[in-house]
Amino acid sequence: MNRVYVCSCFGITDKQVEQHAAAGACTPRQIASATKAGTDCGSCVRTIQGLLGRGACPRRELLEKGEVSAVLATDQELAEAA
């Protein structure tokens, strides 16, 4: 198992960031909320941004459609995955 650490401060790997992104996290702030990555020294924030890319954000699309309950469910899933 090859681990690539994105956040040395909290031991967060690229796979963990990708898992949270797949669960609906679209921004470094949402990743930080779920994992604490990026909240200490901050040197990993750009790497997290790169991993998240500029693709479509299902969460943002739900908000634009007014489906707030679906966004809240996604938030709960992210919190449980942390």
Automatic annotation (TrEMBL):
Q: Which Gene3D superfamilies match?
A: BFD-like [2Fe-2S]-binding domain
Keyword Chloroplast part of the UniProt annotation: no
Q: Does this UniProt record's set of keywords contain Transport?
A: yes
The record's annotation in Pfam families points to:
Fer2_BFD (PF04324)
Which segments does the entry list as coiled coil?
A: none
Q: For this UniProt record, give its keywords in alphabetical order, as a comma-separated list.
A: 2Fe-2S, Electron transport, Iron, Iron-sulfur, Metal-binding, Transport
The UniProt record lists the BFD-like [2Fe-2S]-binding domain at 5-53
Similarity annotation: Belongs to the Bfd family.
Give the matching PANTHER family. Answer: BACTERIOFERRITIN-ASSOCIATED FERREDOXIN (PTHR37424)
Q: What is this protein called?
A: Bacterioferritin-associated ferredoxin
Q: Which organism is it from?
A: Streptomyces noboritoensis
